[in-house]
Amino acid sequence: MAASTAPREALEKPGQIQYYNMGTGTINKGTMVSLRTDGLAYPARSGTATDIFVGVAYETVTNPGSGSSPVPIRILKTGSYVFGTAAATAQTQIGQMFYAADDQTVTTTAANNQFVGYACEIVDSTDLRIRINRAVN
What we know:
The chain is mostly beta strands. The chain has strands at 17-22, 25-27, 32-35, 41-43, 52-57, 61-63, 71-76, 80-85, 97-100, 105-107, 115-124, 127-131.
């Protein structure tokens, strides 16, 4: 396609919620979601550097894996969400980068974990509020 020579309508779509096709299994509402190498959405997991964090599940959806039709799921792409952490929380973690340990737990361990966002609030001794806006793809 050649460069534009006149104004055009870019058909902007607000990005708070996006649809992704999901792989076989269940993604639960309020959990972290990632794309795997097959291009489909799954619950976030640890230990796989190729997964890409895309947001937080807006709803619970199950894909039984039968049939050829894609099963879509809505994913929240902006905002801040409360997730657990295996380590005790501390005020010094505000602004620190966090990564997915599983679909509902974050860690500061970057190696082979997908970046989720930055801590913006200490909720209690085991829960942090994580702002995801700058992490999602």
